[in-house]
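Hello again,

I reread your note about wanting to compare the complex against the isolated chains. To keep things tidy I'm splitting this into two emails, and this first one only covers the full assembly. Below are the input lines as submitted, including protein chains and any nucleic acid or small-molecule components. They are followed by the predicted structure of everything together. The single-chain runs will come separately.
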Amino acid sequence: MHVIVCIKQTPDTAARVDVKDGHVTWGDAALVVNPWDEYAIEEAIRLKEKHGGKVTAISMGPESAKEALKTCLAMGCDEAILLSDPAFKGSDATATASVLAAAIGKLGTADMAIVGKQAIDGDTGLTAIAVAALLGWSPLTFVSKIAELDPAARSLQVERLQEEGKQVCAARLPAVLSVVKDINEPRYPSFMGIRKAAKAVIPQWAAADLGMDPATVGAAGSTVKWPAIYPPPALEANVEMLDGTPEEIASKLADRLMANKVI
Amino acid sequence: MANIWVYIDQFKGAALAASWEALGAAKKLAGELGGGTVTALVFGQSVAGAAAEAFTYGADAATVCDDATLADFRVRPYAALVVKLYREAAVKPDVILGPATARGRDALGMAAVLLKTSAMADGTAVAVKDGAVQVTHPAYAGRLLSTLESKAKPQVITLRPRAFARPEPVAGASGPAANATPALTEDEIHTKVIGYAIDEGKVSLADAKIIVSGGRGVGGPDGFAPVRELAQTLGAAVGASRAAVDAGWIPYAFQVGQTGRTVSPDLYVAAGISGAIQHQAGMRTAKTIVAINKDAEAPIFKLARYGIVGDLFKILPALNAEFKKRLGK
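Full-complex prediction:
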């Protein structure tokens, strides 16, 4: 099995994000592996441990994203490649997916690609479905369990979360999976892993290395633009504190919720 | 003039409320764009009822594909059908819109790629500015809002459930329904649905009008009992904070927050939840928030409309008794 994990570097979830001069800022908060992607990395490593083969982590992003790729190596991925080119800037979900799909195509031997459910910065959740559409691979989103996998028979069976509960489905390899949190418990990087990752040289592929015309990627190759980004209007503190005995409080709350037709 | 197609998300023939919210948003958008036809796309098996219902929620027309290959949602045949209909349409839609449910996001997300564009996902507002459609999309877990525009035709948009009002149904409303044939045969679909593990009898978090959530303050798996009892009385869904899920007290499917579900109920009762920024990300758009916490300084009180400083094990049972009485249960 050759599994590709597509990851993104994002600010930490506790970061205080803001906008200055039209650009998103996050102060001195750490840049981390997108938390959803940790489940993708863990699942890929578990597949390798069970079925053999290797795991390649790829990420489209700036030079700094090499740090996130090093975290992937430290956790147990075998190799990592940064997809970086000034021409990639301003890519919408489909343009981003086209870069990832081109890299997966160049790697050639992959059986599966795994991504997190969404990135905590853009929050679009479109990557898996777009990569699957571009590669023509089986699309399997919101996967909460890989129940069966038979690399020789090129088949797998997964459980997918949807509104009503879980859908169990069988599909063929190659497949693109997006995974949700209850699929596993991501491991911490080992001491040996961190040492190995620190020394790793991470190759960098630009548009030309992927055989891509710069006009088809980045802002030039994207149909969706985001002309504005801004913090939402601050919520005004508007709390009414209810006190008394529990019974008195319950009565006061019921009065208010029913008067306002909330209940 | 703008013609809009609305993807109606259904499960076993029953449309999700978010589909009608999307239909309502489409009608409003069509009006702002100078009028036009709003057509419901109803795909599945035994979906005549859902198609008829679409008219009562304001659809001007419907395109129905009722076929065994569409009985279970699989993204490829659904997305391929949207694309086939688009290519075949004499009058092409300017906008294709749908609910940002698991199925809606996937079907329209893939259709957008196949139509050489990109979906504008999970919108919480739609407006027209200088003739162009603008979608408001919460990014960074709602800590920022971005304005999205698409220069492509069609513009493909999914809308967050419960972010738009559900239109009042008009009984007896009807309109023209066209039948469509599937884009793919069963042999061309390589994914097979084997079955479902459905959470029977539970109110789904995504659709819930009321949610009662427990956090670290419930103290253990048994601590969810008073949370569940109040939820039952109110006809509410049960939610949880990440702290409670990570502690193993309740499964992940119940988690509300940045790495769980994003919800916008009419009423959100947070019991024993301090209100970390990651939890706020998942519930700050609730219309009315009630916070119950021992710590008067907990950040949740900054979001809440009603605050109760106290022991949830005393407050929740008192609330349950009071609402049972008031609701005649």
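For quick reference: Chain B has two domains: 4-188, 210-326.

B.
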